[in-house]
Structure formats: C-alpha cells, structure tokens
Design brief:
248 residues, alpha/beta, six-stranded mixed β-sheet, two-stranded antiparallel sheet
Length: 248
C-alpha cells in the first residue's frame, strides 16, 4: 500500500488526466471508458468526503449501474450517487431536435432504476444504507448521466436541463469529469472522528480502483453498515477492501 502517495501526487494526476483527454478524442466503445474510470475511480469520482465507489452494482437480476459512489453526509446520512455513462461521441439530440437513441436509453435507464428501487425497499436498506429508503423525494440517492461532449448550443442545454429535471437526474458531459480533476484539491488526510493520521492518509489516497458488486454486497452482509458517518465507522474496512494500483 502506498503510504507516501501524496508525494508527487499532482504529477501522477496530470499523467492520468492527459491519458483521459487522449481517450476523449477517440471513438471508443463505452466499455473502454468504463474500464478506465473504474481503474482511476478515486481520481474522477472521489472527493474529500467520498472514498469508495462501486462498479457495476446490480439492481436485481436485470438492471446494472455503471458506478455508485458513496459520499459521507455525516449526520444527514450516506449519499449514494448512481451513475450511467455513455460514450463521449454520443449525441443527445438529432438535427431535428429529438432525443438520440443513446440519450433515450440513458434516460430510460434512470427511470428503470428508480422504479425498481421504489419497489424494492428492503434491498435499498441492505445495500444502499442511509437514513431513509426514499427514492423520489427528500432522497439520499442521486442519479447522474454522463454522455457526450460539452456543447455551447443554448437550445440543447435548455432541453437537456429540462429532461434532467423531469427524471430527477443530473446530465453531464465527459468534459465535466475533466474539469472535476482539473479543479480538484487533493488533501493529504481524510477526516474521521478518531483522528488517526496514518489511517486518514490511507483513506485519502485517490489512487484506488472501484470495488466490485460482489465485494460490496459481501461487506454489507457481513456487518451492520453505518447509515451515517460512514467513513468514521468503516475506514479500516474501506482501506482493506478498496484495491489500489501501482503507478508505473
């Protein structure tokens, strides 16, 4: 485990970002971007209160997320963000202004997730543990679609935002992820109630991969998962179960 990750961390981040930007200019399949983001998930989806992301979390037998991030909302409860990604080359609207097939599938995916979660509250309580099981209103569950590249077309932006409000999800471009990495401040230690510097440094390490559906569900079955103050309660388990990678 890299206990000195903060040394030269910005140089490492810049190399990952440069590789990411090269990928955005290529017409690759969704699988390539999902794999890349899964490896470097701590860089792209992590922040000072988010140190764990699940890849390909299955909702029942038919539905599957691309990613689910876990942000510590402290006394307000854990916040789970369910994320659907498409390709950077995907467009949201046709020349006639109608939704493209890619965008329509992503929107339908969010609707399907929400309906399934509403109908399966026991599953939500077990595998997305937070202070309540609400999905639609006053929920600790957030939903995000990442699709396409940034546009300056005001009509498309307005229409995209309208659809986002209708389905209760944020709709972001792949350039948004680039901006997140560019603007992010990496801290040498995470915050926990116990104030153990070594553990907090390891928890803050952003050079980690996403954990699998199976590993997350096994963790949830093996212990009483805290619905709030998650990282203060489970930092040892997170550090142990979260795979890191060697920077070459």
């Amino acid at each position: 485990m890299d206990t000195n990750w903060y040394d030269n961390h910005q140089k490492r981040v810049n190399l990952i970002k440069a590789e990411w930007e090269r990928m955005l200019s290529q017409h690759l399949s969704e699988r390539f971007y999902q794999t890349f983001l899964s490896k470097y998930v701590g860089i792209f989806w992590g922040n000072e209160n988010c140190h764990l992301v699940i890849s390909k979390l299955k909702l029942g037998s038919e539905l599957e997320t691309d990613f689910v991030s876990l942000t510590d909302g402290f006394s307000n409860g854990n916040v789970f963000e369910l994320i659907e990604i498409k390709q950077p080359s995907a467009r949201l609207f046709t020349e006639k202004g109608t939704m493209t097939a890619d965008f329509n599938r992503a929107v339908q995916q969010i609707r399907d997730w929400k309906r399934w979660l509403v109908d399966n509250k026991a599953w939500v309580k077990a595998y997305l543990p937070t202070i309540n099981t609400r999905v639609i209103f006053d929920s600790q569950l957030k939903f995000t679609i990442v699709i396409g590249r940034r546009t300056d077309n005001p009509y498309e932006i307005e229409k995209r935002n309208q659809i986002g409000k209708e389905i209760g999800a944020e709709i972001r471009s792949f350039d948004y992820l680039t901006d997140k990495v560019t603007k992010r401040i990496f801290y040498p230690r995470a915050w926990t109630e116990d104030d153990f510097p070594d553990f907090e440094s390891q928890l803050a390490n952003p050079f980690h991969k996403a954990i699998t559906d199976a590993r997350w569900k096994k963790f949830c079955k093996s212990t009483q998962v805290a619905c709030s103050h998650f990282y203060s309660r489970h930092y040892c388990e997170v550090i142990k179960k979260r795979p890191t990678f060697d920077f070459e």
